[in-house]
Amino acid sequence: MIDRLRESRWFYILLSVLLAVLIWMYIRDVENPTQEGTYYGVEIQISGERVLEERGLTVASISQKTVNVTVNAPISVHNDLRGNITATVDVSQCTEPGEYQLTCTPKLPSNIDTTGAYFPDSAQVVTVVIDNLATETKTLELKLEGSVADGYQAGAPVFDPETVELSGTAEQLAQVSRAVVILEADGLKQSYSGRLPITLLDENDEPITDTNISMSEETAYLTLPVGVMKEVPLTVSFIPGGGATGDGDVEVDIQPKTINVIGTEEAVAGLTEISLGSIDLSTVLDTSVITMPIRLSSALDNASGITEAQVTVTIKGLSTRSLDVSNIEITNVPDGYTVEKVTQTRTIVIRGSESALEQVDPNQVWIVADMSKITATGTNSVPVTVYLNASDEVGVVGEYKIVVNIKKK
Known about the structure:
Blueprint: H1 2-7, H2 9-31, E1 34-47, H3 49-54, E2 57-62, E3 66-74, H4 75-81, E4 86-90, E5 98-107, E6 124-132, E7 134-148, E8 153-154, E9 158-160, E10 163-168, H5 170-174, E11 178-188, E12 192-201, E13 214-215, E14 219-224, E15 226-239, E16 250-255, E17 258-263, H6 265-269, E18 274-280, E19 287-293, E20 301-302, E21 308-315, E22 319-325, E23 328-331, E24 337-341, E25 346-352, H7 354-358, E26 365-370, E27 378-388, E28 395-397, E29 400-408
Parallel strand pairs: 1-4, 7-11, 15-18, 23-26
Antiparallel strand pairs: 1-3, 2-6, 4-5, 5-6, 7-10, 8-15, 9-14, 10-13, 11-12, 12-14, 15-17, 16-21, 17-20, 19-21, 22-25, 24-29, 25-28, 26-27, 27-29
């Protein structure tokens, strides 16, 4: 069998290949000869851009984005070089707009042993165009690539940050139509929160990829409420005062009357109204227009985007009467101070039915100034509380002050 194998031509062919491999491995690992290798498509990196920005300049274009780099190095070094070579163009020497011929310098990596490696060719030259730096701020928008589920609605997206600042040449910035955050989703049934890249779009809504525009932020945190939408009326409640109770003697108009909210089915199922809060009727003389914030629970999103309501309150069916009140008391004067009334008589307005108003005597009204919170001396206007000892059908309307003279003993 062995004799037959020795006489076979294939035996000698396989033996020759094996010897060649062994010799090659010996040369590579022991002799480690130097050889030339070319690395294609090494991306050019630009340095010194911060210096340019400080001068109000930016890189408008570069003649090429990659270079081919030839390296002479031992075989063992070549094995580690792939993907680690860089090429840099330094633009910090550019001082004004124009076209510059700059050297593109290749560099060996520092994280591997490159002993014996060198670049046999001289550094390549590339053309870099420098232009004035322009900036523009874009408000972020949502681009939903997909849809929400049937029966659900998406609310107003919230971005953090809300805007992005773009830097580049005026020509480059003119290409940007919108700055968007793209959310790819289909059949959304719940709110989305997450960080996504910011994408620049041209006038055709196509992404701008081949550009030197820099952005102050590369990503934004998106919150998109998704749920069931419901139209809910706005309401107010009243604190009786000034002879008005809110039961038949008050006319109220709220604008807007309703808003749309978004929430889970459970959150909106029992929602019948949204209360804006309470209004003290003693502060409303005839007609008052009050701005009140619209506050929602954390489980709801304001799909209408309206955050305030204008509430017009009109008192009807009641009359007013003015009384000159001289019964003024000063109370709770701190030790070390004296307080002298400058105001001797204050006109007070009361409200109620005409018959009830006629029965009120000025002596039934008194004014009290609480001086427990004195902070300054001299002549001051201080708030007072007005008391009325009369029928519940009559009440004091408005807020009042008197003038006093405060001295230290």
